[in-house]
Write a structure and sequence with these properties.
heterodimer; A: alpha/beta; 8-stranded mixed sheet; 4-stranded antiparallel sheet; about 30% helix; about 20% strand; globular; B: alpha/beta
């Protein structure tokens, strides 16, 4: 569908991916349709949308946890196959995932140090003796801001934020080049959210990793993501560089999402509400999927599939009403 | 506050039974809620916010010991018998919990869930209770309330389910609604609708609301006053606009500073270091001192008392960062 203007070859390329969940006796639910995302090394791509929009499904497809029904995912140019429970091929071991709930993703009955050491052995294939493993584990724990002497303890002894650090240490143990983080901060305490978001952003900056950061917390995405992808009901509706999208969103849905975020510290008017709920993905509306809730919808939106419109180079909006923005040239014309 | 108080909590202390003995989860907490007022209670896990809420409803875990006073419309709630509590709970003080998927019974139709307590508390007939349920569903803007009554919870979206949970809580016309993280499980677009609804309820029906949330954005938009809890104690208490606009407790100040929008574009966020204490690791002195960039030696030893600092504003910090001290950044270190 779309070709990214990206100088570097992407690390992770999701191309026209569709994921449909089969249902007995009924038409399949198309959770993700025609989605294309690229993630380059050193880049954080934020993926936002309401619950049920398909952002987690897309994230899982990106690492091969679910199989796309159409399209493909390429990691370093090679196709990412969905895995089942089989061993992950070696070439994919540096494509990793951080999950939402660290208590669920860590083994509650195995000491932290051993879990991280397992990841080193399985993820990199390194043959380590115990002393070497201890040293590597200590380094990893310190890298995520924990003390090395907690290696003999169990996950339940730690807070949510600390457990998420441990889960991140375990991902780093595999020496990843690309991480998909699915709501990595949303189950954490207020002060831990900023700590973990900083940690992830720091890891990307230091190690030149690529990261797909899935979150419903728009303000954090604005803070750390270089590019933002907005999904609605299975479709990517807007994608482009983060700051311009935030300051002047092109798609009506993106505008509504941003307007709904309450601003702390100001007795602002109540944030505006987007009327209605996300429709059932099994029975999506005709035409533009957003039209029943869209304040700007016109008759054509009911029947026509919206085309991708290039707002500016590298910035697209899936809306009939989006107009390309002409960047003014010459010294006399100040920016809009 | 000129409004009459609906709820007055004074020096509430709750000790919970843990594997290692009794531990204070709430320690000397005081606040009040006026009629039609929305009080926000902010705090992280372990701050005592949920235990405070449960003690208002007599829903504390078995073995919990309470002291202090919780007066609702002048009546002491602590120490009421189960039977006496039953007359208050659900009827005059109602709870909306975080996750509507778990607070609604999945197997019962909405009409069963929405009429049972109305008939029990108010002695309504089946038909009267049904009418009340329709009225309440309409008030929370559930489309087509009459057919909604015949549906099961799973047929609704998360936002709709939370609206139904609120309608259920309102059905007996309580004077106080305790909302424990009512929008945390919801999307921002849906959250805005629920917050508008709470605001409308207090204006039109004079319902008082205690809203528990760690989302300071939510707090700023709906609450009139805010009570910031940390480690089971009140850190700061006062009008929301002034507490969040000009925080005086280092914890509140740290929370505001850690928000994504508070730091410079391109610069990392500035989180509060460390993690909140658990019941077993509650620090001595000021419970916030291990994470406080302003902490002095005395903070390790002396428990700060909650004192009035301005009209209607209370602070439990002996340092008070606004009054000309420099933070000791070196001692806390970078991580």
């Amino acid at each position: 569908m779309s070709v990214w203007l990206n100088n570097a070859a992407p690390l992770l390329a999701v191309q026209d991916v569709e994921v449909a969940y089969a249902r007995r006796g009924q038409a399949p639910v198309r959770a993700v349709i025609g989605a294309s995302i690229t993630v380059a090394a050193g880049e954080i791509v934020g993926l936002v949308g309401e619950s049920g929009c398909g952002k987690s499904t897309l994230g899982r497809a990106a690492v091969g946890l679910v199989a796309p029904t159409a399209g493909e995912v390429r990691y370093r140019g090679e196709v990412v196959e969905a895995m089942g429970r089989a061993t992950r091929p070696r070439r994919l071991r540096s494509l990793q995932m951080v999950f939402q709930d660290p208590y669920a993703s860590l083994n509650p009955r195995r000491r932290i140090g051993r879990q991280v050491a397992d990841a080193i052995r399985l993820g990199t294939g390194a043959k380590l003796d115990d002393a070497e493993a201890r040293g590597r584990v200590a380094g990893l724990l310190e890298r995520v801001g924990l003390s090395a002497n907690i290696a003999h303890r169990y996950p339940h002894e730690f807070s949510g934020g600390q457990c998420q650090r441990i889960a991140i240490a375990r991902v780093l143990a595999t020496d990843p080049a690309c991480i998909v983080a699915d709501e990595p901060i949303s189950s954490l305490d207020a002060s831990a959210q900023a700590q973990i978001a900083n940690l992830l952003a720091g890891i990307v900056a230091d190690a030149g990793l690529g990261m797909l950061f899935i979150s419903h917390d728009l303000s954090v995405v604005r803070k750390i993501a270089h590019r933002t992808v907005v999904m609605y009901l299975g479709r990517i509706v807007e994608t482009g560089p983060t700051e311009p999208i935030w300051s002047s969103p092109a798609h009506p849905y993106t505008r509504a999402l941003i307007a709904a975020v309450p601003v702390p510290g100001t007795r602002s008017a109540l944030a505006s509400e987007l009327p209605g709920d996300v429709p059932n993905p099994a029975r999506p509306p005709s035409g533009c999927r957003f039209h029943p809730r869209c304040p700007d919808a016109i008759d054509r939106c009911r029947t026509e599939d919206p085309p991708p419109v290039e707002v500016e180079p590298g910035w697209q909006s899936l809306c009939l009403l989006t107009k390309p923005r002409v960047v003014p040239r010459g010294p006399s014309l100040e920016a809009r | 506050m000129s409004r009459a108080s609906v709820l007055e909590v004074e020096n509430l202390t709750v000790a919970l039974r843990t594997a290692r003995g009794m531990r204070r989860a709430v320690d000397g907490v005081s606040f009040s809620i006026g009629e039609g007022e929305i009080l926000g209670v902010a705090g992280e896990s372990g701050s005592g916010k949920t235990i405070t809420a449960l003690s208002l409803l007599g829903l504390l875990p078995i073995g919990a010991r309470t002291s202090g006073s919780v007066r609702f419309q002048g009546r002491e709630l602590l120490g009421l018998s189960r039977k006496q509590l039953r007359g208050v709970r659900g009827a005059q003080v109602a709870l909306v919990s975080q996750d509507p998927a778990t607070s609604l019974h999945p197997l019962l139709r909405v009409d069963v869930q929405m009429t049972e307590h109305v008939r029990a508390h108010l002695g309504f007939s089946k038909e009267q209770a049904r009418q009340r349920a329709i009225e309440m569903l309409d008030a929370v803007r559930i489309p087509d309330p009459e057919s909604a009554l015949f549906a099961h919870p799973h047929e609704f979206s998360g936002g709709m389910r939370q609206r139904i949970a609120i309608a259920m809580a309102l059905a007996c016309e309580p004077r106080l609604l305790v909302a424990d993280e009512p929008t945390t499980a919801l999307d921002v677009t849906v959250q805005a609708g629920i917050l508008r609804l709470l605001d409308q309820l207090r204006r039109e029906r004079g319902v008082s609301v205690m809203i528990i949330t760690h989302d300071l954005g939510v707090m700023s938009t709906v609450s009139d006053r805010i009570c910031v809890l940390y480690g089971g104690k009140v850190a700061e208490y006062g009008a929301t606009a002034s507490v969040l606009g000009q925080p005086r407790h280092p914890y509140t100040e740290g929370l505001m500073r850690s928000l994504p929008g508070a730091s410079q574009a391109g610069a990392p966020m500035v989180p509060i270091q460390g993690a909140p204490p658990s019941l077993d690791t509650m620090p001595s002195g000021c419970t916030f001192h291990p994470r406080c960039i302003w902490a002095r030696e005395s903070c390790h030893l002396v428990v700060p008392t909650l004192r009035p600092v301005e009209e209607g504003r209370w602070l439990a910090c002996d340092i008070d960062p606004l009054h000309g001290h420099e933070p000791d950044l070196a001692e806390v270190g970078e991580r």
